[in-house]
Design goal:
By secondary structure, the chain is an alpha/beta fold. It contains ten helices and ten strands.
Amino acid sequence: ELINDLNQNTTKEIIKKKKPILFDMIFSEQRAIGLELLKLKGNENLIDLGCMWGALSIPASKQVKSVLGVDQTMESLIFSNQRAKEENLSNIKFLNADIRKVNLPNIFDIAIINGVLEWIPETQEVDLTNYFKNSINKRKIKSDSPIKMQKAFLNKTYNCLNDNGKLYLAIENRYDYKYFIGTKDPHTQTYFSTIFPKKLVNFYFKIFKNKEYKTWIYSFSKTKEIIESSGFIDVKVYSSWPDYHFPEQIFEYGHMDNNFKLPTIRRDGKIKFKLLVKRFFELFLFKIFKLDFFAPAIIIVAKK
């Protein structure tokens, strides 16, 4: 529906009219703040694996020599390509391919994996209007364990980088404090699924949802371990607030300082109870005790 309207409207006009809730998710410049960790020089060739709406591909193209955005959803690429044309960006191209299988030459200086690693084990087409419903995956597909598939994808990413290449990866923290106080895992829309042992959660999913638990996320230390096992070196780990989608605060993991800012408790001029609870937990966990083990999101920058 969005693609059909591209002839009459710009990408921003379409989203404002048809899906305003997604406007900031697609167009906000804050989405790309984490890229500052890469210390880009402007002469890099960058690949964005799972680029979707171009939320990072588009702003990255304004900072580097060239960008290749890869995604298996053609409609997303048509949208992103039109957006690039509207912004007169000639150094960005898009490739419709399965990022798990596509063969890429080792010519890239930067590889971005932003909110993608957890979805790698989910090989069936994901229609989010039905994905979170119970018992939708009747067709059984045998596959490797999620972590094995994720490592294989990271190995492929490693191989597409040149000798001085860098990886930028962002993902949720398995032990985000909000999961302990009643926030659902956004990948499964279930409570506490990231916290409990994965085998136990998988057993629950098989019994009650007739499918496997595949969207695995990890702690800070485990994420770093997985990255290193794929050959990457000099792995820098960062914690991010309020998430990695719109990073407002980024600290090197284990080195939080007193500059941490507590979240607001007001929305539309009114005090909100949920925001008040969030501020209470962040005051003790992060402002006082600096326990970034419970931070919302992980950002990794690593070298080949």
